[in-house]
Amino acid sequence: MGRVAPKRQAPPIRLRRLAAELRRLREISGLTRDDVAERTGINAATLYRIETAKVRPQQRTLVGLLDLYGVADPQRSEILALSRTADEQGWLRPYHADLPNEYTAYISFEAEARGVRNYESSFVPGLLQTEDYARAVIRGGAPAATPKEVDQRVQARVERQAVFEKQHPLELWAIVDEATLRRRVGGSKVMADQLDRLVASAAEPHITVQVIPFDTGAHPGMPGSFVLMDFPETSDPSVVYIDSMAGDLFLEAEEDIRRYSQIFDHLRAQAMSPNDSVAFIGTLVREAK
Prior knowledge:
Low-confidence stretches: 1-8, 94-102
Strand content: 5-15%
Order of helices and strands: HHHHHEHHEHHEHHEEEEHH
Largest sheet: 7 strands, mixed
Helix content: 40-55%
Oligomer: single chain
Radius of gyration: 21 Å
């Protein structure tokens, strides 16, 4: 009787994040893997395994890569800390002042995802926000942010929407609570334009929008918003992302993925159908105007 090959364990999300960041740093440095091998002595095959999350780099190897790519603090310390915990599951990224790096983890996973299931209780999903709506949301949610910080956040949110312009666009299934659509963020015109964007987006074959009406009453999404990201490779399991007051929380345990998938399925069943949702948003557009 032949032996059954052991199932390959999926790399933890922290290791996947570390691999993606090292790959990104090499690419923006304009270097190939062979270039890195020539300059550092790190075998190109080893670098490939590091950049595809098959192995965690040794400390000496990681330091050599960071030196070559010219990575300084605080980003350098963050990457070294990430490497030390790369074999652990789950991940909480606390909020901090360095805005450009704040979105890096989430954006990198979103850009690699095949599909996103997003439930929002308070905001229009970021991937479907207009620039004016995003600006109003960010100003209202971060009153202490400087104009430059607001601009950076808005730009990051707009740039994320490039995932719909890829050869194989991201598949988005967005469910929003009715309260999200009735809150006049930015005033009547900004909100009317945002609702128009939702209607237009829902017409795209890779985007589905549903609304949970007030009449539904209590539902399993009331505790808060969440995102489920699914990836093309079967070796890369789904990831749950929760944006909390404490920071960015990533979950990858099977029980967490199963629980949030079941919650999303319940919300999808309780929401209006996609066609009825678009018609309902259309009535709100007229009210907003």
